[in-house]
Amino acid sequence: MNIKKRNPGDTHVAVLMGGWSVERPVSLASGEACTKALRNAGYYATKVDVNQVTIAEVLADLKPNVIFNALHGKWGEDGKAAALFETMAIPYTHSGVLASALAMDKQRSKAIFKDAAIALAESIVLPLEEVARRHVMPLPYVVKPVAEGSSFGVHIIDYKSNGPAASILDERHIFGDVAMVERFIPGRELTCAVMGDVALGVIDIVSKGGFYDYDSKYAEGGSEHILPAQIPNEVYRKCQKFALQAHKALGCRGVSRADFRYDDTNSERGELILLEVNTQPGMTGTSLVPELAQYAGHSFEDLVTWMIEDASLDR
Questions:
Q1: Do 130 and 197 belong together in one domain?
Q2: Which of 71, 174, 232, 277 is most buried, by the most CB atoms less than 10 A from its CB?
Q3: How many structural domains is the chain composed of?
Q4: What span, in angstroms and rounded, lies between the C-alpha atoms of 116 and 201?
Q5: Is 221 assigned a catalytic role?
Q6: Same domain, 216 and 83
Q7: Low-confidence residues of the chain, pLDDT below 70?
């Protein structure tokens, strides 16, 4: 990996945040936290609340040396923003165009993970109306958008549910025309971050509300993070192995985070299943990647500095 040493005093960083996806509030929080850390590290950092119409013009006027991409969700995280940065020849953080697009599309990324021999939950993608009308998979199962993050639109359909997920028809703005239906994996929520070519630690996420939804992820006290995860050593190492395999299989760069379910309810060894890879992990006060980096000995300022030095084109 080619890390370019940049002098903070001579480096103007544009921190892109906000945007217009459903994850805008999270992106604003990530952007604020990263801007503060970059300024503390000595960088000249400018906050940019991204607007769909004028972003290229704003960047052309600012002429930053580097873009810190703190956008989450559609457009900011699916490769489209990276394509703009490439076109404007401004080095940027996180993954490039193709890796970002693949990771955001759960159906396509699953095909890549399968080829990499990473354990996955069985899933199908069907028209939204069909998923809303009938049970298309034995209970329990999960219904989720094919391309969305932060648990937006995720529904767990089990024996307590009043029929199939009819309410998704009211969430077409999140789902689009199709939905992914995936076998529900009971047990624990685990996550592991990758920084460059190194898998960091593994966190066991205990949601105070049962399901690790949007509020559990971002509300203060919404979940408890157990680091290091209290799981068998072989499962811990396997989680790190899968996270790094997935990162490389997609062609990710910089920092990524892999989310898993670990079913330890039926046997001692259990079942470890990769859910997805996030190429633009949250960087808020309750976010997992800064916590994992801290555990590995990297302060928040060290982390964002490393990301700026890692920034490049042709990612």
A1: no
A2: 71
A3: 3
A4: 21
A5: no
A6: no
A7: 1-4, 149-151, 208-222, 267-269
- The answer on 269 and 190 residing in a single domain is yes
- Report the C-alpha gap between 246 and 268 in whole angstroms: 25
Model confidence, pTM: 0.91
- Please report whether residue 304 resides in a domain: no
Catalytic residue from among 282, 291, 310, 315: 282
- 3 state DSSP class of 251: coil
Which residue is catalytic, options 43, 214, 218, 236?
Answer: 218
Residues 197 and 90 in one domain: no
pLDDT at 164: 79
Whether residues 191 and 214 fall in one domain? yes
Tell whether 178 and 110 lie within a shared domain: no
CB atoms within 10 A of CB 206: 14
Task: Note whether 99 and 123 are within 8 A (CB).
Answer: no
Is 204 inside any structural domain?
A: yes
Do 201 and 257 share a domain, yes or no?
Answer: yes
**Does residue 28 fall inside a structural domain?**
yes
Does the annotation count 161 as an active-site position?
Answer: no
Strands 155-157 and 141-144: antiparallel
Same domain, 192 and 283: yes
Catalytic residue among 18, 23, 24, 253: 23
Name the maximum alpha-carbon separation found in the chain. 59
Q: Closest Cα to residue 178, out of 169, 187, 186?
A: 169
- 255-263, strands of its sheet edge to edge: 223-226, 198-207, 188-195, 255-263, 271-278
Known active-site residue 24: no
Q: Please confirm, yes or no, whether 257 is among the known catalytic residues.
A: yes
Catalytic residue among 213, 259, 291, 310: 259
pLDDT in tens, 213-250: 445 444 555 579 999 999 999 999 999 999 999 999 99
- Structural domain of residue 175, as residue ranges? 123-183
Domain containing 245 — which CATH number?
3.30.470.20
23 included as an active-site residue: yes
pLDDT (0 to 100) of residue 149: 62
Active-site residue, selected from the candidate residues 150, 223, 256, 287: 150
Does a structural domain hold residue 313? no
